[in-house]
Amino acid sequence: MSAARRGLIHASKEAGRAGLSLDVVNEFPREQGGQGFADGGHEKGPGRPLPGGPPRSKMSPLPQRAHGGIVPLMARVLVPLAPGVEELEAVTIIDLLRRAGVEVVVAGIEPGPIRGSRGVVLVPDVLLTDVATEAFDLVALPGGLEGSRRLAESTWVREALRRAVDAGRRVAAICAAPEVLRRAGLLQGRRVTSYPGVLPMDDESYTYVDDCVVVDGPVTTSRGPGTAMDFALCLIEQLSGGELRARVESGLVRPLEKAAE
Asked: Does residue 259 sit within a domain?
């Protein structure tokens, strides 16, 4: 199926469609922190050299894709999922972006449902290998220690990330997933954050900060499940503007900060 046809099918669906199947398992091993990931095997990739590091050009507002035919101009986001993903982060990213009318393509790195770090089962829209070479305005990575480790091992994920940045698009990662960006060579010279203990503190190629959400050029990073909503709302603002972010946020009934006395 062509990218244009797939985009039309997605655009015709309601923005709030869930696309997720929940099967909660109460007992599941909890994540453990660490300095980066242990090296593992690599899957067979696209079979061509990966491009170099990220360009340093100033980012312009998105979406930038040319619109042709009857396919509506909307931001298009890839959310790769791997077993062990932090499901709270994944669902928050997918749900809020779809509330904003963004076309979200949820892609599993392997066939079939994906079981998260707490036993919640998520059903991807497509297999990553079927869409990894297509154009996306943003590639957003949810965390989870095991899920992020498996994303980092995927040549297809690295290819999608580097293609996005090389094309002047955006990439984003939360919790343990900023390590995936580091492995792909996309954090050099940037301000970044992550779940505590994930990114090596002795790596001087980036500047680590403790902010909830950090945006530096095309790269957005965030800390963990507790910052997932702020992370997703920030992505909406980058893709579609502050007005739409405010409209989406107003419908969430988030607690207002107490006025200073």
From this structure: no
Q: Specify the number of domains making up the chain.
A: 1
DSSP string covering 158-174, please? HHHHHHHHHTT-EEEEE
Nearest-5° Cα angle at 167, 203 to 1: 120
Residues acting as catalytic residues: 175
Provide the 3-class DSSP secondary structure of residue 213.
strand
User: Do 183 and 209 touch, CB atoms closer than 8 A?
Assistant: no
Structure tokens at 179: 């390590």
Confirm if 90 and 122 have CB atoms less than 8 A apart: yes
Q: Residue 176's Cα: distance from chain center in Å?
A: 12
Its domain, for residue 164, covers 12-23+74-243
Residue 137's CATH number: 3.40.50.880
Asked whether residue 182 is assigned to any structural domain, the reply reads: yes
pTM above 0.85, yes or no: no
Tens of pLDDT, residue by residue over 24-46, are 333 333 333 445 665 444 444 44
3-state secondary structure of 141: strand
* Residue 253 included in any domain: no
